[in-house]
Design goal:
This protein has 697 residues and is mainly alpha-helical. The chain is 70% helix and 0% strand. It has helices spanning 35-39, 48-69, 71-80, 92-116, 120-140, 149-161, 168-188, 196-215, 221-242, 251-274, 283-295, 309-312, 320-336, 357-364, 371-391, 397-408, 413-438, 444-461, 466-484, 489-513, 518-542, 550-574, 581-584, 588-605, 615-634, 650-696. 49% of the residues are buried.
Length: 697
């Protein structure tokens, strides 16, 4: 298996016919602080499963710990049960270990909070340290949201219950009890659907492919292309994690690997089609891809490939659309078979399930990593927010720290401002609900049920809008805080509002003052990384003397896809940076051209026998990439000259020319902006000199 590592069965040589059509560049993504961003619902469904699991885990842990240790300490178990919110999408064997480590982290945070709770100033600093370290570890080890939030929350609440060093073992035990309950609830689904996470990941990739096919010929193409690539990359990771000893050699695992390769190959075929036409595809193709999603877990629901016959009529087998429909039909054939050979062409995954732990941690601390400034921003802001709260005489300073942690998870400045406003407004509404609940003097059993219900509602709506989640989260937090340290309800509600407002302001201040330009400064180097990886891939494909083997092909594919996904993520973060967003916006056409070049290189890598190029052509192509990369690094207009003629890959030349043109435009806009800024600076200096002269007179 060489370039066709995505194809479980051999196929005839395919190449891309010449074309002069370039798909229209999508409108750049925009991040704004407006009513839609604050109160509108994001696309996607409601998180019913996560909400139910969170409610069940909290109710069970809260009630059990209250019966064994008392209601005050039971709040630690209730929060410890939130291990159920982590690793929701990973295979169960991997999840069992990962959740154990999350639970160990909760126990450690409880111990830190209990030890430092004897001194409020020390507690404020320790909560900030926990926030920074948890942010670093969660991002370095790819732990998805809620990320560091509950580590900080557990640590903060444990400072309330602190009554001396002698209580630390008991508090750690209670937190471990809650973490164990969360572990059991999260793993319970595996008893009924042991392979559901990996089936769902591959099925989601097919659904995103269906959206990509529907987006061809529309202005949303570049955005949907990125979403499809993210879904395919995620499916690769989940399936890799599932390849455990014993299951790896089963026919069921071989079938899933075959479907994974087909979904990746269909994505690349769809990329070729999307970048070569400006009109839309027939809806039958997208409907067929969506039907394949249901067939991942249920082979009997596989669609009949005869439904594609009308689309394939009159198409040459080597045409781009013919290739796409052929891939869809072959994927259906693979999905229909319940028994697969455990070995064969295209069925081996040439990668370890996850990189070495130390390698991930070291790379997260590298000079160009965004994880390091993000973790430092989080730790410093949360620590200073707590210390400032104490300096202002606020007893419940920890709510300021918790709120700052929550809003800083948004990422850039614009999203942090949105999240701060959502948190503050949601808290105002939630405090009213929480105060009404607490004023009724509910028995412990009702308190447990209501707190768990609010947690379930929070997790149900948080993927759609953080404002509505804050409305439900606030009563839950008030109930737990009141149970851990009973205080007058009016005083608790008033303090909660003040602390939330101060925490939101602290989070915004941290986003604005600390490393606010990290993403924007990183963006040019990220584009360079994509171009460099694209060059390596193309030269490997075109060099007739360098035929990459299966393992190298896989590494090239993995590295390039990862670089492409990272590029869009960095750009999305950079456009919310202030004030550098003004210099980032003109780079959108550059980002699009770099991404399209990368996706075309991926498509070429998937060909069974790609058309080779001469050594002179390879040298000229290498020089062209060198010039583009140098121009990006030096922030100047590229002097590209004539590109080598790539007969079999005309759209690559087209995107490289578009890249050069968009870089020239971006540099010109940057120069004009710099010139205007220089003029404004000169005018300010002139006015200041005139004012000083007038004062002397």
């Amino acid at each position: 298996m060489s370039g066709g590592s995505e194809d479980p069965t051999p196929s005839e040589p395919i190449w891309n016919p010449p074309t002069r059509v370039r798909a229209k560049v999508a409108e750049r993504p925009r991040q704004r602080v407006d009513l839609k961003a604050l109160f509108g619902l994001a696309s996607g469904g409601w998180a019913w499963s996560t909400g139910v699991q969170a409610a069940v885990a909290m109710a069970t842990a809260f009630a059990l710990a209250a019966a064994l240790f008392g209601p005050r300490e039971a709040t630690l178990a209730a929060l410890g049960s939130m291990t159920v919110l982590y690793e929701k999408d990973t295979p169960y064997k991997y999840r069992s270990v990962a959740l154990g480590l999350v639970g160990l982290g909760f126990v450690t945070c409880v111990a830190i909070g209990s030890l430092t709770g004897v001194s409020l100033w020390l507690a404020a600093v320790s909560i900030g340290a926990v926030a920074g370290v948890a942010t670093w570890l969660c991002q370095a080890l790819r732990v998805d949201r809620p990320g560091p939030l509950f580590f900080v929350l557990v640590c903060a609440i444990s400072t309330i219950a602190a009554s001396g060093v002698q209580e630390v073992p008991q508090h750690a035990l209670i937190a471990a009890l809650g973490a164990g309950v969360g572990w059991l609830v999260s793993m319970a689904e595996g008893l009924l659907r042991s392979r559901h996470p990996e089936h769902r990941a591959v099925a989601d990739a097919f659904r995103k492919l269906a959206e990509l096919l529907r987006a061809i010929g529309t202005p949303r193409l570049d955005h949907v292309q990125h979403e499809a690539s993210v879904a395919v990359a995620r499916a690769w990771r989940i399936v890799l994690l599932s390849q455990t000893r014993g299951y790896r050699d089963s026919p069921a695992a071989a079938r899933l690997r075959a479907l994974l390769r087909w979904v990746s190959d269909i994505h690349l075929a769809a990329t070729d089609v999307s970048l070569s036409r400006t009109d839309r595809l027939p809806s039958v193709a997208a409907d067929f891809a969506e039907s394949l999603a249901a067939a991942v877990a249920k082979p009997d629901q596989t669609p009949d490939e005869a439904g594609l016959d009308e689309l394939r009529k009159g198409l040459r087998p080597r045409s781009l659309e013919g290739r796409l429909y052929s891939r869809l039909a072959r994927a259906a054939q693979a999905a229909r078979r319940t028994e697969h050979e455990v070995e064969g062409h295209g069925l081996e995954l040439h990668d370890a399930p996850y990189p070495p732990l130390l390698q991930s941690l070291r790379s997260s601390l590298a000079a160009g990593s965004l994880i390091r400034p993000t973790a430092l921003r989080m730790g410093i802001t949360v620590a200073l927010a707590g210390v400032a709260g104490l300096a202002l005489g606020i007893d419940r300073f920890y709510w300021i720290s918790i709120t700052a942690t929550s809003v800083l998870q948004a990422g850039n400045v614009v999203l942090t401002v949105n999240r701060s406003l959502q948190r503050a407004l949601g808290t105002l509404a939630g405090v009213v609900i929480g105060a009404a609940v607490l004023s009724t003097q509910l028995p412990l059993a009702a308190t447990v049920v209501i707190a768990a219900s609010f947690m379930g509602l929070t997790q149900l709506v948080v993927p759609r809008n953080f404002f509505y989640a804050s409305i439900f989260m606030t009563p839950m937090a008030l109930i737990l805080a009141h149970t851990a340290a009973p205080n007058p309800v009016e005083q608790l509600a008033e303090a909660r509002i003040v602390d939330t407002v101060l925490g939101s302001l602290a989070g915004m201040a941290g986003a604005v003052l600390l490393w606010r330009r990290a993403s924007a400064a990183r963006l040019p180097q990220t584009i360079v990384d994509v171009l460099d990886t694209t060059r390596t891939t193309l030269l490997s494909v075109l060099d007739p003397e360098d035929e990459p083997g299966p393992q190298r092909t896989y590494r090239l594919r993995r590295d390039l896809r990862s670089a492409l996904v990272s590029l869009r993520g960095v750009y999305d973060s950079a456009i919310g940076d202030v004030p550098r967003a003004t210099t980032t916006r003109p780079l959108w056409p550059v980002v699009v051209a770099a991404q399209r070049s990368g996706y075309l290189a991926l498509s070429a890598l998937a060909l069974e026998k790609p058309p080779p190029a001469t050594q002179i052509t390879l040298q000229r192509l290498d020089l062209a990439f060198d010039e583009l990369i140098s121009a990006l690094r030096e922030r100047r207009t590229p002097r590209l000259g004539a590109l080598p003629r790539l007969v079999g890959y005309p759209r690559i030349n087209m995107e490289l020319r578009a890249l050069s043109s968009s870089m020239r435009t971006a540099v010109a806009q940057d120069e004009r902006a710099a010139e205007r800024e220089q003029q404004r600076r000169a005018q300010r200096e002139h006015r200041r000199a005139q004012e000083e002269l007038d004062a002397d007179l």
